[in-house]
Amino acid sequence: MTKIETFTKANAKEIQAEVMNSVNEALAKFGVKAQFGGGSFQDVEIKLKLTLKLESENTPEKIAEARDKVAEAAKDLVKRFGINPVSADGTKQIVDYKPRNTKYPIIYLKNGKRYKTSLSRAKYDFA
What we know:
alpha+beta; 5 strands; 3 helices; two-stranded antiparallel sheet; about 40% helix; 2 domains
């Protein structure tokens, strides 16, 4: 490999890939995975954004457990308050119910974003 005089887009991407492989190799023994986000470069400097995540964060067992929790909460809402888990127009879906949150206990998903709402508003929207 030749010595780099200035950074270009091509060699910056190549360096980022090399760094990512080396970092992931080193972190594998800890069960941690590195992700590099968008960075920037100038003639003499590269800035990389690094995020570390546990590899076991989204195991199939945890995903199944979360789905079961949501299904159980939806059944509970229907039984206790007469609230359907999906809105009448189909754009909103209840994903969580937090009874300890007195003001906004209902968490729903709309267009990929999570929102919270009151029980009275949920009865109106999800009736």
